[in-house]
Amino acid sequence: MANNQIFHSGLGEPEGPVLLADGSWGVVEMSSDTGHVSVISPDGTTKKVVTRTGRPNGMVVDSAGSLLVAESMNPPSLLRVELDGSVDVLMTEGDGVEFLFPNDLAFGPDGALYLTDSGVRRDTFQNVPEADRADYPFDGKIFRIDLSSRSAVVLDDGLAFANGIAFGKDHALYVTTTADGLIVRYAWNDDGSPGPRECFADLVDHTKPAGNGGFRGGDGFAFGENGFLYSSVVGQGDVTVVDEGGTVVERIPVGGDQPTNVAFGPTASGDIYVTVKDAGTLERHHVGVDGLPLLPSS
Length: 298
Prior knowledge:
Oligomer: single chain
Structural class: mainly beta
Shape: globular
Radius of gyration: 17 Å
Number of strands: 26
Number of domains: 1
CATH architecture: 6 Propeller
Largest sheet: 4 strands, antiparallel
Strand content: over 45%
Distance between the termini: 36 Å
Strand order of the largest sheet: 1-26-25-24
Helix content: under 10%
CATH class: Mainly Beta
């Protein structure tokens, strides 16, 4: 790493960093004391609370500048949050399936929204001992959501704590499954449907002992314009970099044990921004690569 710095500190279990049009950063704060959607100024010096939702998790910004938020509790739902603080509950279920733990979001090449659900209620998950979480029978799901009709279909289920989600340079769909430490890939068919699930990479550094009682694996991630994948690995304290063939090529240490998500900074910055839950920080790391342009909403 060329350099890194704390861009903003004092956050309550941050997640879901998104770069906004004016250069500011949207983040969520998941702690019970916060539960906020917040905006950090472009220079990182100040923070404004937009609204309190409960326990917001993943977040994306749509083409209109609205924030779409995966709310993991109170109740589990998909929200639309405006920067003026107004909140619209878009969905609490999809395809006849009640949301349990909406986790992360990404727009697809078809303009639809894709949502991971980790497959267990948050309060249940909290009561499972850390050492037992890797063996818990999660029923993680991937939803494809049509925002215009507020309808959804389940694309896959039975995932081991479905978490981060993004489309790669190859337009395939990638998802982290935290409980088994993997990232899985779905090739994208010409008709707009995903192919079968395949293992793409193991994100866990098996040469080192796990933190947090053994539960570690990929969380949120983003793609560079070089096609490499930059994934936070919760319980491992790093951002793991994976090349287009699925080989781990670098591990970037962060200032805590629980990095939760990664986003690329402004064009030509060559920076990634990492939310670190246990440190309460948004970190900036220079990686010398710009991000793959995010797919817009339709």
